[in-house]
Amino acid sequence: MSNFIKRAISGLFFVIILTTCIFIHPLCFFALFFIINIIGILEFGHMAEIAHIKINRPMCLIAGSLLFTAGFLHNYIGYIDGYLFFMLAVLILGILELYRKDTYAFQNLAFSVYVLIYFSLPFTLLIYLPYLCNDMWQPDIIYFPFLLVWFNDTFAYLFGSRFGKHKLFPRISPKKSWEGAIGGGLSTIAAGLIIAPYIDGITIIDATVISAIVVIFGNFGDLVESMFKRCIEIKDSGNIMPGHGGVLDRLDSILFAIPAIFIYLFFATRP
Prior knowledge:
It contains nine helices and two strands. A hairpin with a 3-residue loop joins strand 1 and strand 2. The termini are far apart.
């Protein structure tokens, strides 16, 4: 089986699972992203070890899980105290580093905290998006950024393959071109404007800004993850998705886009 077919099948499988879990019920969304959160932290930990950094995986998994769970409980049932348990877990993470007696304790702790910000926080903020718009669970607002990322990736590839001549960031990602980025960006904004009328709580202005955010921050998210992999000289963050690599490879764009979308909606929806 060719790599293209593997990539197409695993990508379709991922899209089906993600779409189903987002739309079927909030608890299905929670279960899927809880698992994704765990896998992402483990992949990041593996990448850090290649760079001779040993994050405290058990405590990172606990803290990351508590952060995501706190966000879900806060929005779904109004229970905000879960964030206190997350804060306690982060404090314990620092204390435990004292007893690991590792030469690179500072780097270990810095990477441990960074993975929570880099991977666990965006999906926690994702839960807040519909509540910022309509103060209720609304799966299409959750799904919207993912759809835009897929549009951007697809059309950037198509335009880049056909017209790409000027490298976007050759030091980090030699295959990306300005032509692909611009073509993908314009196509994504157009798609956002077409989809916006079907999403309650999202105006045309919101759709335009969110689409632009996905294009800009999504590309930077992809480049940052590529930078990580180039630094430690690996091709993929994992191998859970044939043809795509790991969940970090698949979700790198959305990790940067979601916090920026949250910030925009937070200020745009304030009375």
